[in-house]
Structure formats: structure tokens, C-alpha cells
Amino acid sequence: MHRVLVIFATAVGVSCQVTLAKEPESAQRIQQLADDIVNKPPATYFSLATEIYREGQTNEAAFWYFVGLIRYRAWILATGKDGQSSDEPYHLSVLAQSVGQSIYAHVDRDSKNLVKAIDRALVWDLEQPNPYTSKDGFKAQYERA
User: Among 4, 17, 71, 144, which is disulfide-ready with 42 (CB 3.0 to 4.6 Å)?
Assistant: First the structure.
């Protein structure tokens, strides 16, 4: 019996250490993704949203998810990759479903938070430069996105 308690206590201790060790890694990963995000490819926004979502910050994850949707759609439309000869619409669809499904499940429960995330993403995107898709050069595509 004593041996079982020692093993259990050791397992709990190791589990706590593993959990604590993961937290700084997660924070570091989020920071790496967020650093200079405006100059990163559109798919990076989905990665950032995923990592933030894993940390339980569903509203913040929704915000980055919607920024990713805006930026990826604008890029696809501006580069002409929305045609049948490109896999990009499929890639966007996979990202939107895989990342968005979990985020929508939590944010959509409170439509006010969903609207806030969308509005915040639209404002952020308008205020930030986008080196992947020129807002001036592809105005119509941006409006469509």
C-alpha cells in the first residue's frame, strides 16, 4: 500500500512538472507567432489563433482567426489563386474548418463576443499594413474578402 502511495505521489509530481514545463513553451510559441505578425504569411494567423485557443483565451483566439480569414481571402483573391488551378482555396477551407470549428463552438455561444471579435479583426486589419496583399493595389479584392 505504501508503495502505491509513493508511486501515485511521484506520478502526480511528474505530471505537475510536465504541465508547468509546457506553459512557458506555449507562451514562447505564442510570442514567436505574434512577433511582427503583420509581416508573416496569412496562415500564421491561424496558427496563432490555435495556440491562443489552447490556452483557453477563446475571444482572443476568435479575433486572430478572423484576421486570418480576412488576410488569407484577400491574398487568394489578389493573387488569382481562387481558380481551379490552385489548391489555396482548399487550404483555406481546411484551416477555417479545423481552427474555426472549435473557436466557433465557444465564441458563438455568446453572439456579442462573436460580433466583437469580427469587428475588432476588421478594425485591426484596416489599421495594419499588409505586405502580402497591398490594400491600395487590391482594393476590390480586399472589399470582397
Answer: 71
